[in-house]
Amino acid sequence: MTAKKLIGKVHLWLGLSSGLLVFVVAITGCVLAFEQEIKTVLRPYQFIEPVANGVPMSPSQLRAIAEEVVPGKPAKAVIYGDGEHSAIVPFYGVAPDYYYQVYMNPYTGKVLHVHDEETDFFHFILHGHYYLWLPETIGQPVVAYGTLVFAIMLITGLVLWWPKNLKKANREKSFRIKWKAKWRRVNYDLHNVPGFYALSIGLVLALTGMIFGIQWFADSVYWVSSGGKTAPVYQLPLSDTTAVRRFAAPEDRVWQQLSRSKPHTAGLYISFPEKASESIFAYVNYKPGTYYKMDYYSFDQHTLKPLITEGPYSGTYAKAGFGDKLRRMNYDIHTGAILSLPGKLLAFCGSLICASLPITGTIIWWGRRKKKSPAVKQYASQRVREKV
């Protein structure tokens, strides 16, 4: 068996074993690529009328109002947008699972909407994309290593696609779909030609997806991109429980401090610690709609002393090293948001083509199987006659 035939066998059986997984993950990825744009239409309460020289209400004030409409559950944080977006107060917990978001006018405190994220369409799609709607402990590794298999298939597919030479005839076969041919040939071209053009996008989607789910791969990428550094385990620093509490609403002090230095267009997140040992976690998002360009802060809730942490999700973006910045960018690269709308279009089209590959590939395999079966039957009958 030649090397190319062996690669063909590997490509075939990996494709048949992972085809359904690839289809589900890719087609849900298509939907998630434009999640924010769709939500701007479905959730008009995300927007408010701009207030000239308006001063938003403090986190503690918004928290008190939000906890009245979601009784019996503690608010986790306040998320401030720019002057045209409403503030969001999230509530979430486990056993039982719940996740609510209270949209509010930050200037008046008016509750605009209470949304149950657990029953939201995009929450359902996200669980399919991450876990195949299985329990997280089962679905997450299945999706992660299925994505690794898909990355291998993309590489083996490139080897199988690669023309022996680049004469004009081969270029037309390899780079164009022959629409006037029989349907089997059209299907074959639909597997190979779009697959080639989407190869680089598919690899980027697969590799960035693997960083979320395969720890050894994520650690390896960080080690290479950071110049040999080991990725520290992320954990929030603890507050000093022996210190005397100096402020009645420390989250308001953090909000005031960060609001003075941030641009008007930047978003701001302030957490509400529930235990005496928890710190106040905050970030300034300089590019709302993405998640990479942020400054992260932690404060002792009793003294407001800044707490120093290590890793990609700590400190300011400007002072982060290349490896830390690349890790921060991973999600936005994965969704295409790093390049704004053009990037999301690329991610959508790449995901759509990736979703089609298991279908066209299965049809190719089935067609060849059906084509070979008469010859196999004829050979078998001939052998029987020879024995008789």
UniProtKB/TrEMBL annotation:
Q: Which residue spans adopt a coiled-coil conformation according to this UniProt entry?
A: none
The regions listed as transmembrane in this protein's record are 12-34, 142-163, 195-218, 345-367
What UniProt keywords are attached to this protein's entry? Membrane, Transmembrane, Transmembrane helix
Q: Does the keyword Transmembrane helix apply?
A: yes
Q: Give all residue intervals belonging to the PepSY domain.
A: 57-112
InterPro entries registered for this protein in UniProt: PepSY, PepSY-ass_TM
The source's superkingdom equals: Bacteria
The answer to keyword Glycoprotein applying to this record is no
> What's this protein's name?
Propeptide PepSY amd peptidase M4
The record lists the organism as: Spirosoma linguale (strain ATCC 33905 / DSM 74 / LMG 10896 / Claus 1)
Native organism taxonomy: Bacteria, Pseudomonadati, Bacteroidota, Cytophagia, Cytophagales
